Amino acid sequence: MELSGLQIFKYLPAAKKAENSNCKKCGSPTCMAFALKLAKNQTKISSCPYASDELKELYSDSLKQSQKTIEINGLKIGGENVLYRHEKTFINKTALAVIVQSEKELERVLNFKITRVSENLGVDLVITKGFEVQNRKEFNIISYDEFLKLPLENIRDGGFTKTAQDLISTRINAIKNKDENYSKPVYVQFDKASNFNEICAKASFYICKYANLLVFEDFDEALFTTLITLRQNIFTDPQKPLQVESKIYEFNNPDENSLIFMTTNFALTFFAVANELESLPVPSYLIVTPADGMSVLTAWSAEKFTAKMVAKTLKKWNFASKVKNRKIIIPGLLAHMKEELEAEIDDFEIVIGTIDAFAIADFVKNYK
Ligand code: SF4
Q: Given ligand 1 and candidates 43, 48, 52, 55, which is best to mutate, with the most ligand atoms within 8 Å of its CB?
């Protein structure tokens, strides 16, 4: 199992209040800073001359890869190091593959695409059986024979309880016991579907625990939309907030007199506000400021939402010259920044908007 910074710190001189604590010989200001860097592989254990043999052994153990990674035309499968996402992060999302047996089916699968939280998503791997495909290099397509030769472990779908138990015990043996016999990425193959709801329930569980690849003999758009949505949530790295591009978004063909809103580039905030603006009976702009994917209040407290940064964003997009409206509506949670913002941005007056996105429609109704 990978070591966290705190686990490493426990073995360093500062944690034991020993001689040489925080001596800086490793190049980090404290033992804790060194431990955190080491956990992220940003430094070498040999940089600390006082690291104990016990720590060296534990650390070199933690570097051993628990599960192998395989790659199919750029699609990475496996390579997991932890049992739970909150321990660190999951590495490669459960890949979704479909076996197709005719050109017609192939077109249906290849045409399936959804966009969610700014990601374009579809079927990860198409496996053809009984016919050959040519000139479709933009898609990840392999033959069934090629698929069978991949170094993957097949966990047979032998009923829900049995399959789930096999998936869990395989992953535990790979991660906790680092048992070579369980180091191959695993897949579950579903037979022809008689009941998509049942397949959806099983596949949802197997995505959570612990299939690296799911192979379906039948394709269904609703099934894949559900699974892709679940998978996107499970495999989001909790250390990297989902973010959207920082720019000026337009809703319902705005002109120079349209309403102007502002928020940060945290994806959940953006989509909540964007949905409201889309359904307004009036057009609007939404200025999305760069904030490393933080929500408005977090961004403000981390100094990622500052008056200077807002002024810079407006300047970057030359926004003042594009509109006659001189009022920007900011989130209600940032009401305390009104004066600071107005002092920094000469061209615009700041209006305090709503705290919650769902209140925007009522706010606009009463807005003069
Ligand atoms: Fe701590 Fe070792 Fe770095 Fe000194 S060299 S600060 S003991 S980690």
A: 48
143 CB within 6 A, ligand 1: no
Digit-coded pLDDT (tens) for 216-235: 999 999 999 999 999 998 98
Question: Ligand 1: which atom is nearest the Cα of residue 47?
Answer: 5
Span 54-86, pLDDT tens digits: 999 999 887 777 899 999 999 999 999 889 888
Centre a 10 Å sphere on the Cβ of residue 327 and count the other Cβ atoms it contains: 12
pLDDT at 4: 86
Query: Are residues 20 and 13 in contact, defined by beta-carbon separation less than 8 angstroms?
Result: yes
Task: Give this prediction's pTM.
Answer: 0.70
Q: Which residues contact 235 (CB under 8 A, 6 or more apart)?
A: 90, 93, 94
- Which numbered atom of ligand 1 lies nearest the CA of 28? 3
C-alpha of residue 19 to centroid of ligand 1, in Å: 10
234 in contact with ligand 1, CB cutoff 6 A: no
The reply to whether CATH 1.20.120.160 applies to domain 5-63 is no
The domain segmentation of the chain, as residue ranges, is 5-63, 69-235, 248-366
CATH of 248-366, one of 3.40.50.2300, 3.30.70.260, 3.40.50.11600, 3.40.50.150: 3.40.50.11600
Atom from ligand 1 closest to the CA of residue 21: 7
What dotted CATH number matches 69-235? 3.20.20.20
Helix (H) / strand (E) containing 284:
strand 284-289
The model's pLDDT over 83-128, given as tens digits with 9 standing for 90+, comes to 988 877 888 999 999 999 999 999 999 999 998 877 889 999 999 9
Phi/psi for 34 (5° steps) reads: -65, -45
